[in-house]
């Protein structure tokens, strides 16, 4: 993370996750040979797992404490990870209900929605995440404080 930078890893990870979802959508929504369709679906799934593992998974756990001030760090981390695990639980619940829900809603539309959210997350990370490569927690806190002069990077 320190060599590549958190912003670059997050942006690349979310773009990769979006590409993976759109690849799976393409595989299941267009009439292809069954073997090609299965191969594209497996490739998309593996790409999603890989790109999540290099960015969105680990960087999120590192970036939350780095972006919060020393006095509020414990409260921010407690709240953030509580929300994170609630979202994980909702995703798990949705995954267990997903096969039944596919009868009502087309599979590709739900996966395209996940891809769209990943793409929007990449735009957010690119535009709003502060790069912290090679900086101490104190330097980051100083650059994020409203009284600090200069541009946020």
CATH architecture call? Up-down Bundle
What is the strand content? under 5%
Rounded to an integer in angstroms, the radius of gyration calculated over CA atoms is: 19 Å
CATH class: Mainly Alpha
Report helical residue fraction: over 70%
How many separate domains make up the residues?
1
The structural class is: mainly alpha
CATH superfamily: MFS general substrate transporter like domains
Task: Quote the distance from N terminus to C terminus.
Answer: 17 Å
Q: Low-confidence parts lasting 5 or more residues at pLDDT below 50? A: none
CATH topology: Growth Hormone, Chain: A
How many beta-strand elements?
0
Q: Can you tell me the overall shape?
A: elongated
Overall pLDDT confidence: 79
Total number of helices = 5
Q: What is the N-to-C succession of helices and strands?
A: HHHHH
Oligomeric form of this entry?
Answer: single chain
The profile of the biggest β sheet is: none
Question: What does this 3D model show about the protein?
Answer:
Helix 1 packs antiparallel against helix 4 (107-128). 76% of the residues lie in helices and 0% in strands. The protein has 5 helices and no strands. The two termini are 17 Å apart. 19% of the residues are buried. It is elongated and about 60 Å long. It has one domain (6-130): Growth Hormone, Chain: A (Up-down Bundle). With 153 residues, the chain is mostly helical. The chain has helices at 6-29, 34-67, 73-101, 107-128, 137-144. The chain crosses the membrane at residues 12-30, 42-64, 76-92, 112-130. It comes from Oryza nivara (Indian wild rice). It is found in: Membrane.
